[in-house]
Design brief:
The protein is an all-beta fold and 238 residues long. The chain is built from no helices and 20 strands.
């Protein structure tokens, strides 16, 4: 029988730091919940709103695959590898921190907030050379189907590459539509995060920013009760 968990949006960790309004799906910084430390190798899923003209100063990372998805506004990224780029909605950024990298993240628009999702995935190989990638994913290419935005570095799948046997998909599922996803590996699980809308997975209804985890299953079905924006992480559970 499949194992499932439900994470309600209003049960996430919450921190308001003046210019930063952050919600944490998993334990992060000063917020700790022993039942929400990680889901398999998915360690962090932060839903951040950054005030105009503000951001994170330069700070270090190592041995983590960091994926940033901008939902609204702009994000300006600078790092020790020499990248200085802006990220906008429908773009995805991947940074393999590897042996060590520093970077800053800043909202360059003084008059508009930026909303982003930042996720951290444990790598399956440590101390690799740090690397950076950024790509636009057209929204029309994910209507009623899964758009692969991240995939393993040794795979031929679409999606930017990370050092982990994990995939990240996004779909815009129209009201009344459904899709079924079969796991790539029987030892993987899926963490389904509803960016917006209303869906049903199994017997569980998800509303905006709710999440649902499923493992020890062959597949799962998502039904859209309203037009919905869905993010799916398929990750090793150990």
């Amino acid at each position: 029988m499949a194992k499932t968990i439900f994470h309600a949006a209003d049960k996430r960790g919450h921190a308001k730091h003046g210019w930063l309004d952050a919600h944490h799906s998993f334990s992060f910084a000063d917020w700790y919940d022993p039942t929400k430390v990680h889901f398999g190798v998915l360690r962090v899923l932060n839903d951040d709103i950054i005030d105009g003209g503000m951001g994170f100063g330069r700070h270090p990372h190592d041995n983590m695959e960091i994926i940033t998805i901008v939902l609204d506004g702009k994000l300006e990224h600078k790092d020790s590898m020499g990248h200085a780029q802006q990220i906008i909605p429908n773009e995805v950024q991947v940074m393999s921190a590897g042996s060590g990298v520093t970077h800053s993240e800043y909202n360059p628009d003084p008059d508009h907030k930026t909303n982003l999702l930042q996720t951290w995935i444990f790598p399956n190989k440590k101390n690799v050379q740090p690397r950076y990638d950024q790509k636009m994913y057209p929204p029309e290419d994910r209507v009623n189907k899964l758009q692969t935005i991240v995939s393993p570095i040794d795979s031929n799948d679409d999606g930017m590459k990370i050092h982990q046997d994990a995939w990240i998909y996004r779909t815009t599922l129209e009201a009344g539509k459904s899709l079924t996803h079969s796991f790539r590996n029987k030892d993987n699980g899926a963490y389904i995060f509803l960016i917006d809308g209303k869906v049903t997975v199994g017997d569980q209804v998800l509303n905006k920013r709710d999440a649902f985890g499923i493992s020890e299953a062959d597949s799962f079905e998502i039904k859209a009760d309203a037009t919905s924006d869905v993010l799916i992480f398929e990750v090793p559970m150990a």
